[in-house]
TrEMBL record:
The keyword Nucleotide-binding applies. It comes from Kordiimonas lacus. This is Phosphoribosylaminoimidazole-succinocarboxamide synthase. Belongs to the SAICAR synthetase family. The gene is purC. CDD domains: SAICAR_synt_PurC.
Length: 243
């Protein structure tokens, strides 16, 4: 992977220049971080599993009409995606209280929320991705009103779809994080789903046992991270052999 031009290296992925202008290769690493990289580790094979899970989900989302950056998976750890300008706002959708919202508002983990709640965080490693209001997004120009409306609309649509998809394989979709980007096509600029959707950025609980099948296993030192990620892939019918 060192022969290509690296554009960016994040906590779990590396982006390289793609073969055509306007394309990028997204490489999935085995590195795991939590609490804004205060906790670091390596989960052997995570990159392979997340690449396949994200491919599966982005393909299914495209099928229901959600525009995404995904073009094709090109290897066990890589996928070809459209180059976008990332909107510096993380969109979180919550169905059941856990993690951040439980801490902030004193709601017991596992409490179903009255309706899906969409939250926004400012994408900044330096600041630890702080929770922000729509007002901040607009006032600081991180996204405009149309983009904000589209991100919210797509986030709820994705939540509906993924909640059903996971329910079908015995998993509760507790919450998840999305990132969107701007795709410039001539004069036009459209908002499309970017980044990845995998157990790194979702909370997924087994419906029968309540077992956590996501990155909380790493964050909370529960162990069995890879078995959990592989179980999600297995239930989706896409268990790849780790390389
Ligand atoms: O920590 P918190 O409860 O706010 O996280 C909500 C959801 O968003 C979780 O599924 C978590 O994995 C995801 N998330 C993420 N990246 C962040 C913040 C949250 O993937 N920077």
């Amino acid at each position: 992977m060192s022969r290509r031009n690296k554009i960016y290296e994040g906590k779990a992925k590396v982006l390289f220049e793609g073969p055509e202008p306007g394309t990028i290769i997204q490489y999935f690493k085995d590195d795991a971080t939590a609490f804004n990289a205060e906790k670091k580790g390596t989960l052997a094979g995570k990159g392979v599993v997340n690449n396949h899970i994200s491919e599966y989900i982005f393909t299914a989302l495209a099928d229901i009409g959600v525009p995404t950056h995904f073009i094709e998976r090109t290897s066990m750890r890589e996928q070809l995606v459209k180059a976008v300008e990332i909107i510096p706002v993380e969109v979180i959708v919550r169905n059941i209280a856990a993690g951040g919202i439980s801490k902030r508002l004193g709601i017991d983990e596992g409490t179903p929320l009255p309706r899906p709640i969409v939250e926004f965080c400012y994408k900044s490693d330096e600041l630890g991705d702080p929770l922000i209001a729509e007002e901040h997004v607009l006032a600081f120009g991180w996204a405009d009103e149309i983009e904000l409306e589209e991100m919210t609309h797509y986030a709820l649509r994705i939540n509906d779809f993924l909640s059903g998809l996971f329910a079908g394989i015995g998993i509760k979709l507790v919450d998840f994080k999305l990132e969107f980007g701007r795709l410039y096509e001539g004069e036009d600029c459209i908002t499309i789903l970017a980044d990845e959707i995998s157990p790194d950025g979702c909370r997924l609980w087994d419906m029968k046992t309540g077992e956590k099948l996501d990155k909380d296993r790493f964050r909370r030192d529960l162990g069995g991270e890879m078995e959990a990620y592989q179980e999600v892939a297995r239930r989706l019918g896409i268990l790849p052999n780790a390389d």
